[in-house]
Design brief:
By secondary structure, the chain is of the alpha/beta class. It has one domain: SGNH hydrolase (Rossmann fold). 35% of the residues lie in helices and 9% in strands. The protein has a six-stranded parallel β-sheet with strand order 1-3-2-4-5-6, with helices on both faces. Strand 5, helix 7 and strand 6 form a beta-alpha-beta unit. Helix 3 crosses helix 8. The radius of gyration is 16 Å and the shape is globular. It starts with a strand and ends with a helix. About 12% of the residues have low confidence.
Length: 237
């Protein structure tokens, strides 16, 4: 796996997650991509989680396809990021993108914007800033369009639902559903954009798909999601 320096493993309190992420992200430099790499991963902790053990979702994709993946995902990253912290550009998901020899970009994001930005309540304005209801405008549409102009196809990974048992993100379900619906519309209009919904991934009250914090993906979930992404890439015409 070709990656930027990984952030430390973090646990339950996501405000601490964000603070440690800011400290770890400062000064990170993206290494040059291998000439063989044609797949880029960018996004937030959904992709980056379990990276210290080499079992993040991009790691699984790399092993499944038997080819390198450049991973620029960062814990705590947002689609809309305006905090003036020098050296923390990786916390802005759009800024994780660099033009390159990419055939595919694995992308996710928006969950941190909803949770930190509006507490997953009264989020209509934040949702519109992320992606309009018709899927035609907003931060997500802009980054997808930029990637597509570079010639790469996109696999957009949807929102990981709460397990339904004592999760800090239980209240975010409706907003996650709404964001997924908008991304699905965006994907319908472009044959080079593939939307991977995770709505069917987590059985109600099944904790096996989440880490101990009941927010991030477990190793089991990471394997399933990574294999689904690899199947999309492998099966695309």
């Amino acid at each position: 796996m070709i990656r930027i320096r990984r952030l430390p493993a973090l646990t339950l309190i996501l405000t601490l997650t964000l603070a440690l992420t800011l400290l770890s992200a400062c000064g990170d430099a993206v290494p040059p991509a291998s000439e063989r790499a044609r797949i880029l991963a960018m996004g937030d902790s959904l992709l980056a989680w379990n990276g210290l053990s080499g079992q993040s979702i991009p790691d699984v994709v790399e092993r499944s396809l038997k080819e390198p993946v450049v991973d620029r995902s960062v814990i705590g990253a947002r689609m809309i990021y305006r905090l003036p912290i020098s050296g923390a550009a990786g916390l802005s998901i759009p800024k994780q993108y660099r033009p390159g020899p990419w055939d595919w970009v694995i992308l996710n994001g928006g969950g941190n914007d909803l949770w930190f930005g509006c507490g997953c309540g009264m989020c209509a304005q934040k949702l519109d800033k992320l992606l309009r209801e018709d899927g035609r405008g907003g931060a997500i549409a802009e980054v997808v369009q930029r990637i597509r102009r570079g010639g790469a196809r996109v696999v957009y990974v949807g929102y990981l639902r709460s397990p339904g048992r004592s999760s800090p993100i239980e209240a975010c379900k409706d907003e996650g559903d709404a964001l997924d619906a908008r991304v699905a519309l965006l994907a319908e209009r472009d044959e080079g954009v593939y939307f991977l919904s995770l709505a069917d991934l987590v059985p109600h009250r099944d904790l096996s798909f989440h880490a101990a914090d009941r927010v991030h993906p477990s190793l089991k979930a990471g394997r399933v999601i990574g294999q689904r992404i690899a199947a999309i890439i492998r099966g695309a015409p």
